[in-house]
Every structure is written in C-alpha cells, then in structure tokens.
Amino acid sequence: MKVQEKWIQAFETVFRKCKVEPGEIVRLLCETESRCINVQLAELALARMGAVPVQITVPSLPVTTPVPVRSTGASHVVQNMPPVINALSGQGLVVDLTVEGLLHSPELPHILESGARVLMVSNEHPEILERLTTTLDLTKPVKNGVRMLAKSKYMRVSSAAGTALDITLEGAKVGGVWGGADRPGLVQHWPGGLCLAFPSSQSVNGKLVL
C-alpha cells in the first residue's frame, strides 16, 4: 500500500487538535501487529509538523479469541512492563497505535496521572480515518451532549424497523470524545465526536432491531 499525501494531512489535522508543537517529542506506542501504514503516516505527519516521533514497539500477544478483535480499548500488550510504562509516562503526547488500544487498559491511569496525554488511533484503514476526519472543533457540542446525558434520567430509543428500548440513565457513567488530546491527563480517540453513557446492569430493556 502506497502512502498518500491526503492521509498524511488527515493525521496532521488530528495531531493539531492535540496541540502538537514543533520540537515536541511524541511517543508512538506500537506492537508487532500494528497497522504499518498508520504508523508510517503518524511519523510523517509529526515530522512535517516539526515534532520528533519516537516509536516504542512491544510484541503482540498470542490470539485467544475465535474472531478478530481490534479497537476495543482493552489491550494488554503493555503487560505492566515497567520500562514500557516509564517510557510512556511524563509530559507530552502518546499516540496509541496498538491493535486494540489502551483506552480501558490497566496501565492507562498511571500514564495519565504522570501528565501524559493520549490519543488512541482506531486500527482502521487510513481511508476510513480520512473520511472520519473533520476540521470542525467538536469540543463544545460533545461537552453539551455529555451534560444533557448527565442531567437525563430516562432515554427511549425507537425506529421504524421495530427498535423499542427503554433506558434508565440515573447513575449512569457518562463521557465524551471530541478527538483532541489537548491537555495533560486526557485520553481521546480518533474517530471522535461521541457522547457516551454506560447504564447500570439491568437498566436497559426492550428490543433492538438491526
């Protein structure tokens, strides 16, 4: 697969949302099964911005599932290895290019508490990432959406196909992703533009028609 300039531009657009500065050392967390084209695009975009990309690569783990697993946010490739955690800790941007991503990994809280900011790049073909790149600042609309979710007690989802879901939002954990890891201690992922709610157990009832 050949590198295309428009893909470099897409990565650069997202990195600018992360407030990457010229001369900044940016850590790229990879594994041996990372999508090579995305690693290369990240390096080229950062270099074009005047930043210094430093690649940290760990071995991919044996497959234990019968189906492909990617972009779940539940990666275990860091395996609590102190040298790797130390390399990812401290001020500056970490670009997560692992297959599953660190979003829900046990090591992430320590990395964020150290002052790092983390951008998880979903393990997708760059053409998909290109289509899901926007120059719009989604921060305000996403935060407004999160506030609406936090204030809501109930949600009903319906469709002409027959979906009828009743969801209790009281006590639900809510969050948002606008796509730019622009301050220390923040994790975001690309694609972004999401408002999320995690209702408690047995608080979702009804029928979902796909």
What do these coordinates show?
This is Peptidase M29. Keywords: Metal-binding. With 210 residues, the protein is α/β, with parallel strands linked by helices. Helices cover 28% and strands 25% of the residues. It folds into 2 domains: 5-131, Rossmann fold (3-Layer(aba) Sandwich); 139-207, no CATH class. It contains 6 helices and 10 strands. A hairpin with a 5-residue loop joins strand 5 and strand 6 (164-168). The chain is globular and about 50 Å long. 30% of the residues are buried.
Order of neighbouring strands in the sheet with most strands = 2-1-3-4-8
- The gross shape turns out to be globular
CATH class of the largest domain: Alpha Beta
Per CATH, the superfamily of the largest domain is Response regulator
Mean pLDDT, rounded to whole units? 95
CATH topology of the largest domain, which one?
Rossmann fold
Radius of gyration: 18 Å
| Helix-strand pattern | HEHEHEHEHHEEEEEE
Please give the share of residues in helix.
Answer: 25-40%
| Name given to the CATH architecture of the largest domain | 3-Layer(aba) Sandwich
Keywords: Metal-binding
Protein name: Peptidase M29
GO molecular function, one term: metal ion binding
Pfam families: NicX
